[in-house]
Amino acid sequence: MSRVRVLGACVFALVLSAPLAPGQTLPGAASSPPAAPAQAPSDPLNRDTPRGTVQGFLSAARQGQSDLASQYLNTSLTGQAAADLAQQLFVVLDARLQTSIRRLSDAPEGSRANPLRPNQEVVGVIESGGGNEEIVVVRIERGSSGPIWLFSERTLSLVPTLYEEITLRWTERILPRFLTARRIGGVRLFEWLTVLLGLPLFYVVTALLNRVLTPLIRGSWRRIFRQSDLFAGNVLPAPVRLLLLAFAIRWVLATLPLSLLVRQVWSNAASLINVAAVVWLLVLLNGEIEQFIRRRFPRANVSAGASLLRLLRRVFDLLVIFVGMMAVLRRFGVDPTPALAGLGVGGIAVALAAQKTLENLVAGASLLFDQAVRVGDFMKMGDIAGTIDHIGLRSTRIRTLDRTIVIVPNSQIANASLETISARDKFWFHPVVGLRYETTPEQLRAVVDGIRGLLEKHRSIDRESVRVRFFRLGAFSLDVDVFAYLYARDWNHFLEIQEQLLFGVTEIVSRAGTEIAFPSQTMYVANAPAAAPTADSVPGR
């Protein structure tokens, strides 16, 4: 998969991951404080929290216990009238309520999202012909068991009208009665068929669509852009097909009059599929970025760069997966803040324990990106001189002139003064030619002029740098300083050129009639006649 296709798929993921309808979010949920830890309910019907009231009502009504469900209503009706009202409310909530029960407050005092109405909690919003209607539970005092939460009188007053709208649903008019009337586990048969057959069938359709579109789009694209490999893989990779499946689930939930239980289950499934698909696409995108950067690394450091990029990619992959897990926890009403705080403390402890390792890793990364050293460089660091054999994430291997391997931590190399001998652009030719003191001025001039001519005529010499001077009367020689820069491919090539030049220098000295001086001393005998002193040269003394 090319990086352009993965990037396009990520943009497509962001589009599909947007909520289908704003009515699916719970009003005031964003500003709600974290839910308090669940405590043992003081009310036998678990009506002491908003979430407990809604869950208890739906559970009782779904099991056909209308008399029990009527205990969750703030109404003056009794007997069969209260039971019928509870059944109608269940049908309305089961068909139209667009919210997640897990996001309701589980605290006895509620979320207090509206400070002006602290004893009211909005369960959700129901769309009707007259506009959007809020489903509200209120906290009231009843009996000696303390305050409890019940469905409000205003909400119950809307139930008959909403119930009439829902009983006229098109599914009851079009589908056979055995599909709409028969229930399995409290869920109508046509809903089971929609979930168990419709959605897997849609995913198979996306796979078939991918097989049909891939060769067509690939052929058309290559005819237009001959050098492009944008559609070298699948047009609809697996993560994109999962996103299409999540979009299909949301479309089904928004279109078909499914029950609340089915909507809750498949809304959670769509969220999980959506998060998994986006995480999958981002992991693929990280891989494409890694390959893109690796192709632009210098060939000398390709192994070290590949190791560093692989480590960074794994870190980013784990970060993406971690963010996806946090999103899933948020979706199911779990506050990940304590876990994040614990991970922060644990991360500090790990960082302190691995301080030296992290220091070497950072130093290795700086060596790679700054190109301070490269594999194959001949360098000198303190007493160590050798060729860089390998640059790793933690250490660097140097092969010395004795053919041994010295392993140096990257932090030491990053903090040391390095002399990269192989990085020089010119080689310094700088011998000092010492001539015997018996050399005459004419011979000395011949030697100086001859060496200068030799250097200026050589094709490997930088002519502007040539300098040959008689510069010192040494202890036992007349010293001629030879200075020049020459061009060579490497150290061996320099030694070859230097050898040729030194042979030329010795020939010039020989043709001038003099010799190279060697360490010597002149001894004068005191009793010898002053007019005719004698001198003996004693080598090595």
Q: Helical element count?
A: 16
Q: Give the overall form.
A: elongated
Taking the alpha carbons of the first and last residues, their distance comes to 80 Å
Q: Give the amount of beta strand, in percent.
A: 15-25%
- Provide the low-confidence segments as ranges: 1-9, 11-38, 534-541
Structural class: alpha+beta
Oligomer: single chain
- DSSP summary, beta strand count: 16
| Largest pleated sheet | 5 strands, antiparallel
Largest beta sheet: strand ordering: 9-8-7-6-10
Brief synopsis:
The chain is 50% helix and 15% strand.
Structure overview:
- It is a single chain.
- With 541 residues, this protein is α+β, with helices and mostly antiparallel strands.
- It has helices at residues 3-16, 50-62, 66-69, 79-96, 153-167, 170-174, 177-181, 189-224, 238-255, 260-294, 302-331, 337-353, 355-370, 410-415, 441-457, 491-511, and strands spanning 120-128, 131-141, 147-151, 183-184, 187-188, 378-381, 384-391, 395-400, 405-409, 419-420, 427-429, 432-435, 467-473, 478-486, 522-524, 535-537.
- Strands 9-8-7-6-10 form a five-stranded antiparallel sheet. Strands 11, 12, 13 and 14 form a four-stranded antiparallel sheet that branches. Strands 1-2-3 form a three-stranded antiparallel sheet.
- Helix 9 packs antiparallel against helix 10 (260-294).
- The longest helix is centred in the middle third of the chain and has 36 residues, at 189-224.
